[in-house]
Amino acid sequence: MSRIAETELILNDDGSVYHLNLLPEDVAGTVITVGDPERVNEVSRHFDRIEIKKSKREFTTHTGRIGNKRLTVISTGIGTDNIDIVLNELDALINIDLQSRTLKKELTKLNIIRIGTSGAVQAGIPLDSLLVSEAAFGLDTLMHYYQQNHTEQELKMLSDIKAVLPSNCGLSPYIASGNTELMGKLAEGIEKGITLTAPGFYAPQGRQVRAPSAYTDLMNRIQAFQSGGKRITNLEMETAGIYGLSSVLGHRAISFNMILANRVTQQFSKSPQNAISHCVQVILQRLTEII
Asked: Which of 121, 126, 135 lies closest to 224 in space, CA to CA?
């Protein structure tokens, strides 16, 4: 690969990547992503020591250690447009020589662990539970800008989701899967499902507040999806982008979803912060003991 131009990969005056404000040495091999910048503290308070704290815009990063395990936690903000920035800049930090602006000969694979909140779309999924995304459909457009390779199973699922969406909606979903190695190591005993990543929180997730929705039966169609015994279990706004870009860039990714709402029963968690705190502890324990 030839030299990457300054306009393709923008660096700050101190050599850090443009949006994240990070240097290569600031990033650990295992990166936890959260949406909310304030949730970074919820994760890093469990670190034995914190080595780095940096923030720029909605991107807050803490890197530290639990025992001998070095971890980075970074906030992405909401949506796959931010995931495009975070994943590409994290990859640049570890796989591009920022001085020569050329690709390194030896490429590094990151473990990318999403911890996020989500809403269930099946009645039997309890509030305050933890769910792992085996795969995710994206209703945004991010991965249409990148070249993806799909398995036959993914192509069949993609065909099946297209068949249940409204014919006049103009949506063109994509699909991406979580890393099977991380699934095997970290997700034992946790319910798994298929996640739908939406490009918004209200009408794109079937919510009706005041602005009229163009597709009033969207939730019914999402709930009715079936493909090879798999169903859509939950809605959120980042997983498909994380899985898609991680796969394209050669990283390993897994998405944990804290179920704070059930859209079928129309219930919301009575103690969301307690649920989040518990899930963070469970995931950190698995990370430090297994990976």
From this structure: 121
